[in-house]
Backbone:
């Protein structure tokens, strides 16, 4: 049986392929966006894990929107307007998929930054969206390009990761956030704010979300994979009720609802007295690892490589002289270090700049130091 045309056009994930190769015990992986397993708050979850045995109701079918006690808790934490709705998804990736399926017809335009999150490009590719891109600066998207794109193409939505962007780590400035919201309102473009790394800030003060400035024309995706556990597979989508209701209809047909026991387990974790300290410990751990990787890169990489500093998140973006980054990544893998080359983060790979995405959260300082040594040796030999 022939697969659908939309799927034929979607390329397999390079990152998944390289992660499989990086399982070799002799390879240090800087390729994936994996949280460190030592940060999983299993001890904090134990009280609720034990309580689940006395809660048979959570093992029954549940509401598509989510487990009501969890919804009530999150509505309070996020300070949602009465006119806004909240829905639990099976990871925030499902939320993105539901948005694409609910709102994008084949050929309709979606704007993204370039480079951008690979998973988003795959989701929009499956619904055969017309992907438009704007370049990124150190402050966020190029605003002149963005306005020209909005005015010329009249896209349906603008998808972005304003806090510690994947793959570059860029965090949008306050001025950029306000201007993007202003442009979305002016040109009637819905803003899709993906915020999986927002809690991972380890320097500076948190900035308002972009959706704060255009609350009725935005949909927000949040994730608990980075601060709790990816295996829980719990994400959250919020927005104006009229924007969320179509997503609930599609989710009902997709999986009825996300796991209710896992939602109850998450609620117990979020309400635990030790949860804030847990978040602080993650930030401290990742800050230390970031500082190790950044320091070693600055010390060991050739001077013609540009290392972009970050204030949080999980990634460092290293810009290189023009070269075949796929071949470079292959050579580096043979040298015992796994990285992700820049073209996989562009809808049109031939438009990419030469760069590598490096993850610092899932390797200890000794491994990071050795990884940079191997990376520097490989770069010197290749470039």
Residues:
């Amino acid at each position: 049986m022939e697969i659908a045309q939309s799927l034929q056009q979607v390329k397999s994930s390079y990152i998944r392929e390289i992660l499989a190769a990086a399982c070799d015990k002799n390879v240090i992986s800087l390729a994936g966006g994996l949280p460190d397993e030592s940060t999983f708050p299993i001890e904090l979850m134990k009280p609720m894990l034990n309580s689940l045995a006395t809660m048979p109701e959570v093992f029954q079918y549940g509401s598509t929107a989510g487990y009501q006690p969890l919804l009530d808790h999150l509505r309070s934490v996020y300070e949602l307007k009465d006119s806004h709705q909240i829905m639990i998804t099976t990871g925030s990736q499902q939320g993105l998929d539901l948005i694409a399926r609910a709102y994008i017809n084949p050929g309709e335009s979606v704007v993204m930054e370039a480079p951008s999150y690979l998973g988003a490009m795959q989701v929009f590719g499956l619904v055969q969206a017309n992907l438009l891109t704007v370049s990124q600066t150190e402050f966020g998207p190029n605003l002149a390009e963005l306005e020209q794109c909005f005015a010329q193409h009249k896209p349906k939505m603008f998808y972005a990761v304003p806090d510690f962007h994947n793959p570059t780590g860029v965090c949008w400035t306050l001025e950029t956030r306000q201007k993007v919201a202003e442009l979305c309102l002016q040109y009637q473009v819905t803003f899709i704010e993906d915020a999986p790394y927002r809690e991972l800030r380890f320097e500076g003060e948190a900035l308002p979300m972009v959706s704060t400035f255009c609350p009725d024309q935005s949909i927000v995706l949040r994730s608990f994979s980075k601060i709790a556990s990816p295996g829980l597979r719990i994400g959250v989508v919020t927005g104006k009720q009229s924007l969320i209701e179509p997503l609930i209809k599609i989710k009902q047909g997709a999986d009825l609802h996300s796991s209710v026991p896992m939602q109850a387990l998450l609620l117990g974790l979020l309400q635990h007295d030790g949860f804030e300290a847990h978040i602080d410990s993650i930030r401290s751990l990742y800050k230390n690892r970031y500082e190790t990787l950044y320091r070693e890169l600055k010390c060991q990489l050739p001077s013609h490589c540009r290392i972009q500093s970050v204030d949080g998140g999980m990634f460092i973006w290293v810009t290189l002289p023009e070269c075949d980054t796929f071949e470079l990544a292959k050579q580096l893998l043979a040298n015992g270090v796994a990285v992700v080359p820049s073209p996989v983060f562009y809808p049109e790979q031939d438009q990419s700049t030469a760069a590598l995405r490096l993850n610092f959260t899932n390797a200890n300082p000794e491994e990071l130091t050795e990884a940079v040594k191997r990376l520097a040796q490989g770069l010197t030999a290749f470039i």
User: Anything to note?
Assistant: The mean pLDDT is 95.
